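Reproducibility note. Readers wishing to regenerate the assembly model reported in the main text can use the exact inputs given here. Chain order matters: entities are listed in the order in which they were concatenated for prediction.
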Amino acid sequence: MSLSPTRSLALCLSASLLTLPLQAGAADGEAIIQQGGSNPAAMPCMSCHGTDGKGMAAGGFPRLAGLPEAYIAKQLADFKAGRRENPLMQPIAQALGDAEVAAVARAYAAKPKVNVKVGPVERPKEGSGAWLALRGAWDRNIPECTLCHGPSGVGVGDAFPPLAGQSAEYIEAQLRAWRGTPAQPAGKKARAVAAVAPTRSNDPNGLMRHIAADLSEAEIKAVAAYFAGLGESTEPFDESQHRLR
Amino acid sequence: MKMTLRCLSVVLLPLVTTSALAADAVRNPRLDDQTQLPKAPVRPAGQTYFQPPAEADIPHNAFGDLVRRGQDLFMNTRALAPQYVGNDMNCVNCHIDRGRKANSGPMWAAYPMYPAYRKKNNKVNTFVERMQGCFQFSMNGKPPAADSEVMTALTAYAYWMSTGIHLGKAQPGRGFNEPPPPKGGYDIARGKAVYDKQCALCHGDDGTGKKVGATSVFPPLWGKDSYNWGAGMHRINTAAGFIQHNMPLGRGRTLSDQEAWDVAAYVNSHERPQDPRLVNGDIDETRKRYHADDGVNLYGVVVDGRKLGQGVQ
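Running the prediction on these inputs yields the following structure tokens for the assembly.
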């Protein structure tokens, strides 16, 4: 049996990990990401969130690389407690021990943050996704997304995660999770659709749910597409430079 | 002898006052301070606030370019005009929605009220002088010259936003529409509880706000990078109005009058940069001249055994 160098290295690593005495409270975040938690129900994170932790757009699996440690830990706690509902993620979160949650949050936070190219001041068109992102809809008390999520949506502190670097599928799904779906009365050709209750209620101080509740389906799609479209830049950014709004 | 002294003081006192004012005038030739506005008229039921023109309607010519530059400066003051800004504040921090939102000191309600005559000091101040006051106090910086590119652009932006407004007429939505002082007064300790629950998430436990790299996102509310002791926002009544209408962001009008006053008092009971009008290096003199008669504020007041107004650098 011949093994590629990387494969054998990985095997060696995992073997050495297995032989390490398990200290109380110590867990290897990278090992959980690659191989799963001690409970087999805690599947390896990378199988959905990608080998690089940048998520998988098609499945709506979010990027975790470079997200704040406290934010990731809070989301896992919220999945466990049901403040954030998701049929895939809840059982996984429940299968992770507290030390494992802390370790995995630390490991993802240590990966590279999303890097957005710094450009000149943008001039969005009213009614576009960019408009919502950069101007908001103050007649409905909706602040521009970048006011809390930071210029270019790069995220601010532990409470406001990056929107840049996430896929449109993921952002749309979250806005709908906060909003729920209003009931649709039966039309001439369409059947009535029952209301779907919100499945996310873990926004600090209730800052997100009222915003999502006031967004139309078209607005949700447009603003999600805007942030997904920012892409990721490989150009290094000097943090002493300002990002313009 | 007694008589002579009295006579002398009658003669001397106005002299002293006049020369002190003259010294002020030398330092800030015609700078407008941020004393209180008269109460704005109430919005009649069923009427909307003034609607400024849409951004898309800014013309595509030299004038439009100046208006857009003004808007850019308004939103990115610290980044685009660093030589005039001494802290981490931008115009848009206090004037939400790019200076368009009613009860958030909208530009369209301010611009048409200048030049303004003040009986109190028998002075006339222009809109540019009022904005210079913002740079001096709210931004703890150095005011740009009246004919500077920065001032011209900001003036053009405010002028454009006021398109179609009634000149010289106070508009509903002007200023911050302060809630009346609560009957039992305000309470700083209660204000801290409101702050910890509703404000600390963004502005931090220590009031320093939050940044992304060099860019300030949530402005500092006290300390060296916040507005100074001469800014209008240092008044508890003014801050209560701003907070009640606009905070937490997107959830304005959710705090009661009492909560707004309490939390405004908590924020404004912290040290911040010194009032640049400091008289003879003395807090008490400065309080007497500029703060005693300026709404409800804690400059020169002893709180928790410490006299406020020391300033921080």
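We highlight two features of this model. Chain A touches chain B through 33 residues (CB under 8 Å). The longest helix of chain A spans residues 5-19.
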